[in-house]
Design brief:
Layout: E1 2-6, H1 14-27, E2 32-38, E3 57-61, E4 64-67, H2 71-82, E5 90-97, H3 109-119, E6 124-129, H4 133-136, H5 143-159, E7 171-176, E8 186-189, E9 201-206, E10 212-217, H6 230-235, E11 238-244, H7 251-256
Parallel strand pairs: 1-2, 1-5, 2-4, 5-6, 6-7, 8-11
Antiparallel strand pairs: 3-4, 7-11, 9-10
C-alpha cells in the first residue's frame, strides 16, 4: 500500500511523526509512506488552496517533501506532481495537535487536506488528538492516537463506507479523546456536533506604532454538546469516527422547500418592455 500523509501543524510537528508510525504499520514492509506537508504551521486554514500565487515544493529526502502552502495544497502537489505517476492508495491527514470535533471541523486544515484528497477521488482520513488535563501530564500527549490509530483505520478500511459513485466521495474524521491510551473506552460512529455557548472570537491588540491587529481565539473546548455527537463522546472517553463529504447542502431543507418558487416567483420585466 502506498500512503500519503500530510498535516496542518507543519512538517516538524510531533503529530506528523505519530502519523508516520501509524502509516508505516498500515503500509507494511512492502508498502511506501510518502510525506508532503506544510513547511510551516497552517492551522485554521480549512480547505484553503494557494490559488492566487505559486507554492514552492521542496524535496527534503526520499519520499519526503515540504510545501509553502496549505494541507490542501500539499495533497494537490502530491497527486498532480510528486506522486503523479503512481498515486497513493490512501491519504491520511494529522495527527492534529488538538481536536477537530464539532465546529472546529469547519476551520481545520487537517480536515481540509482529507477533503481535498476525497475530491481527487482518493480514500482519505483526518486524525486529531483531543488534549486536556488528563493528557497534559503524559510524557506523550499523542499516546491515545499512537496506540489506537492503526487499529481504527484498519477497521475503517475493511468495513467502512467508501462510496465513490456519489458526486462527493466520503472521507472520515477521527478524533481521539483527551485521556491516556489505557483509558479509551472504545470507538463510536457519530455525527459532528457543536459546543454550546462558545464560539471563535478575536482579541484586539494595538501595536506600539498605533496599528490595530487581532489574535483569533478559540472557545472553551470542554463546553457541552448534544449527546451522541463527536464532542460528547470524546469528552466521555471514546474515539469518534464521523463520515463526511464536501457537500454543504442541507438536504432536509431541499425536501421541505420543494416547489417553494414554482408558482409564485414574480415575473421579471423584460428590459425592452415599456411602461
Amino acid at each position: 500500500m502506498r500512503i500519503l500523509i500530510t498535516n496542518d501543524d507543519g512538517i516538524n510537528a510531533p503529530g506528523l511523526q505519530v502519523l508516520e508510525e501509524i502509516a508505516a504499520t498500515l503500509a507494511g514492509p512492502a508498502g511506501e509512506v510518502w510525506v508532503v506537508a506544510p513547511a510551516f504551521e497552517q492551522s485554521g486554514v480549512a480547505h484553503c488552496i494557494s490559488y492566487a500565487h505559486p507554492t514552492m515544493v521542496a524535496r527534503l529526502d526520499e519520499r519526503r517533501y515540504a510545501t509553502e502552502g496549505s494541507p490542501a495544497d500539499c495533497v494537490l502537489a502530491a497527486v498532480c506532481d510528486v506522486m503523479a505517476d503512481n498515486p497513493p492508495d490512501l491519504v491520511l491527514s494529522g495527527v492534529n495537535r488538538g481536536n477537530n470535533s464539532g465546529e472546529n471541523a469547519m476551520y481545520s486544515g487537517t480536515i481540509g487536506g482529507a477533503m481535498e484528497a476525497a475530491l481527487q477521488g482518493l480514500p482519505a482520513i483526518a486524525l486529531s488528538q483531543y488534549l486536556g488535563p488528563r493528557t497534559a501530564s503524559l510524557a506523550d500527549p499523542f499516546e491515545g492516537s499512537r496506540h489506537h490509530g492503526a487499529a481504527v483505520i484498519r477497521r475503517l478500511l475493511d468495513h467502512g463506507d467508501w462510496t465513490s459513485d456519489a458526486d462527493f466521495r466520503l472521507f472520515y474524521n477521527i478524533n481521539f479523546p483527551p485521556v491516556p491510551a489505557a483509558a479509551v473506552r472504545g470507538t463510536r460512529v457519530v455525527p459532528q456536533g457543536r459546543r454550546q455557548g462558545t464560539n471563535f472570537s478575536v482579541v484586539p491588540y494595538t501595536a506600539p506604532n498605533g496599528r490595530r491587529f487581532m489574535w483569533a481565539a478559540g472557545g472553551a473546548q470542554n463546553a457541552p454538546a448534544r449527546p451522541g455527537t463527536d464532542v460528547a463522546v470524546n469528552m466521555d472517553g471514546f474515539i469518534s469516527v464521523t463520515p463526511m463529504r464536501a457537500d454543504l447542502t442541507c438536504h432536509a431543507s431541499l425536501r421541505e422547500m420543494s416547489g417553494l418558487f414554482d408558482d409564485n416567483t414574480p415575473r421579471q420585466t423584460e428590459a425592452a418592455e415599456t411602461p
